[in-house]
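dumping this here before i forget
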Amino acid sequence: MKLICIGRNYTAHIEELENERPKDPVVFIKADSAVLPKEQDFYLPPFSNNVHHEVELLVKITKVGKHIAKEFAHKYYDEVSLGIDFTARDVQDELKSKGLPWEKAKSFDGSAVIGKWVSKSNYNDLNQLSFSLKKNNEVVQSASSELMLWKIDELISYVSQFFTLKKGDIIFSGTPSGVGKVEAGDVLEGFIENESFFKVSVK
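structure:
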């Protein structure tokens, strides 16, 4: 299983981090060891003083695919979920300033929260899904998938040009604006529409 993550897929998030708008999706990988085990707390890593939450819609690949046309991409996933791409922002900023890869900032142990999975048939239109993240019962991130620069099927088609997609692979589709620092004692809860998909305590 690989975790394929998309960066800079929401205009407001690009602007809040003062990044350049990409002409193609920004793609990076998280290791399978980044997955936070179910019901486990998230422990702040000792090498960072500025870990950020980034809530994202997820899809799970159901069959092998390569060079998938956009119009057929919907055949390669049946379920959706919500997750967090925890990011050691200080480490990432340092790596980016040197032109180095981001893995230390993005793929450390426990940095990928994956919520429960539900059938995509539960929703009328995956391109108009509202989702949000609450930190200590206060909404800190809120958006709709209609604001994505590249929608889910476009991402699957694009990514499959470079990587063979395999059953069980998970695509993190990018985070909207509102990312921010997490502290020990915080409780993070993610919602699609009004349904809770995960709840994580920060230690």
